[in-house]
Amino acid sequence: MASIINTNVQSLNAQRNLSTSQNSLATSMQRLSSGLRINSAKDDAAGLAISERMTSQIRGLTVAARNANDGVSLAQTAEGAMASVGDNLQRMRELAVQSANATNSSSDRAALQQEVSQLSSEIDRVATQTDFNGTKLLDGTFSAQQFQVGANAGQTITISSIASARTSALGKFQGINLVNQSIGVASDTAGAATVTIGSGSPISLGTIANDAKAISAAINAQGISGMSASANATSVASVATAAAGGITAGNVTIGINGTNLTVAAGTNAGTNRANALAAINGVSSVTGVVATDDGSGLTLTAADGRNITTTYTDTGTTGATMANFGLAAAATTGATINIAYTANGATGNVVFAGVMGASSTAIGSQGTAVSALDISTVAGANTALTAIDAALNTINSSRAALGAIQNRFSSTINNLSATNENLTASRSRITDADFAAETANLSRSQILQQAGTAMVAQANQLPQGVLALLR
User: Fold this and answer.
1) How far apart are CA 169 and CA 370, in angstroms?
2) How far is CA 52 from CA 16, 208, 273, 356, in A?
3) Global confidence as pTM
4) From the candidate CATH numbers 3.10.580.10, 3.40.50.150, 3.30.70.2120, 3.40.1160.10, the one assigned to the domain spanning 236-333
5) Name one GO molecular function term (predicted).
């Protein structure tokens, strides 16, 4: 090998290796001091891009979890206020029930109405003043609100609406409200009956007679959502008892709802009426019909709303008619019926087939607003009961919906927390420094630094060997 002094290749090589070890030492110290494997894009360009995308998701998920918690708080605020409204409505209902009692005087009912008015004002105050961060919740304006519960656009939960708790809105509902509705021509002959709501399919009520009791029982047994029915008492008015002077003593047969009764007929009108009264009431547990002597004739009543079917046969030659017993002519008489239906988005008509004379009733706004209730009369108290029941149904349904959305938010928060945790762990595997490996690299680099420095010094001494040739 030539002996040269202008170019010290060994020194250059030692310097290059020393520079490499210095860079490695600097990288190890930076990673150990920051705790990060990637401190700049040069450390791992692809890893940096991936970790930054993960950071965006992690930070977005953290905020989304806070948003969902805020959603829970909003729903709790609204639901708590609605609980207060429900309590006030329950108290108003108690007052309406009390007012409907015959023991109360006009002044008593006026005093009850004063409390109803105050409770109504309190409900309105709660409805108009309940807010969350300045957003009104119960005045009917809260609708189609979206909650951002994800890190990306479109990851939302929507609350379609919170029912208005204003007294001008409570008590009203979309549906039908038939009160004392005629069933048409009463009949004891059973046949297939259905009810069709809007554009839905016919709902079978079974094989029943056109009888208010049977119809209401079938509707309630079917469990049609939002629909309920009740039969009013059936009544057959009396007729003035006809004079009995021309009657030949004997027996007649009076039929009450299929049960035949033998009744003695004679020349005394009062006795005839008394005989019929005793005979009818003697089997009332079977027929469901009670007779009442109003002083002129006999009134027939079925408290459960069943049809009252009467028949008459003169089994002898008495010449008597039903009028001789104070009874109306033989016929089938039906009761009126009450049917309430709260539509769940349904439109159109509620149509009965096979019963009620195939009646059709349009679905529309029904009921009386709570703000208009007046229980200072018995009629007003009865109207209030119907309206308050509708208002409670609205409040309870809305509270149930708010409870469901709270549970959904809670589930969302749990999912966000789990996703955030897993993404953070994934980012950690990319960006965090492995201290065990880096401390080993640091020790290696430090030793190489010391050795490299020594080798540079040795290499710088090599050209001095040329001086031996010049002696």
Assistant:
1) 8
2) 34, 72, 99, 71
3) 0.67
4) 3.30.70.2120
5) structural molecule activity
